[in-house]
Amino acid sequence: MGNIEEITLLQEIQEEVREIRQVSGFDAEVRALNTLSQNLAQELNNIAKEAKKENLIKEKRLLQVHLKQALMYQEVYVDKDGKIVSYGDVYMQGLSQNNTGSGRTHLGSFTRVALPSDIEFVEVFGGHTTFYALPKEGNFLYVWGANVEGCAGAGHTQVIPMPVRVEMPARVVKICCGTSEVDSKQSAVALLENG
Fold first, then answer.
1. Using CA atoms, how far apart are residues 9 and 54, in angstroms rounded to an integer?
2. What is the pLDDT of residues 90-114, one digit of tens each?
3. Strands (E), the chain
4. Residue pair 99/129 in contact by the 8 Å Cβ criterion
5. What are the backbone angles phi and psi of residue 124, rounded to the nearest 5°?
6. Are 128 and 184 in contact (CB under 8 A)?
7. What is the average per-residue pLDDT within 147-161?
8. How far apart are CA 129 and CA 161, in angstroms?
9. pLDDT tens digits, residue range 36-69?
10. How far apart are CA 106 and CA 188, in angstroms?
């Protein structure tokens, strides 16, 4: 840790100690110490993650993409044996100016898609305006785009410029998207693992 981070951490601890002294009772002390230990554990985990990444090799893993004229990849960090240790950001190239639903252009170069960097994504599905990122594990999807008539499954019909998590009753196996080029309407059907 740098000196500034150590000073900041020390100030936070001193502030929590002051709060403990002001509040009477053992419960307040336990809560404060639990909070402090959780904060320290999170900070140590972040430091360990960064230190671990310094010894890894960053590579690109092409995703299975079911989009018209688009490519996507996810950064991965591999060890010296080539085994994937952690997952990174997802990037997208292609599509036209308005069919991401947020007005972003992906034509000339790869741009980052705001998907969580600690989840492995295996496939990305999409039609004309709305997109669905399928994680390797878990009963959820990440969706974004125009969301015309609520086709993203997020429970509303508003545009979703940044990917949001949509919980599902079971793991999604496949998604099929249909699009009308005339009126930009899209439909989607998700096949769940339980049928």
1. 24
2. 888 776 444 444 444 445 677 888 8
3. 57-62, 64-66, 70-78, 84-94, 111-113, 121-126, 130-135, 140-145, 160-167, 172-179, 186-192
4. yes
5. -130, 130
6. yes
7. 85
8. 11
9. 888 887 887 777 767 666 778 888 877 777 776 6
10. 23
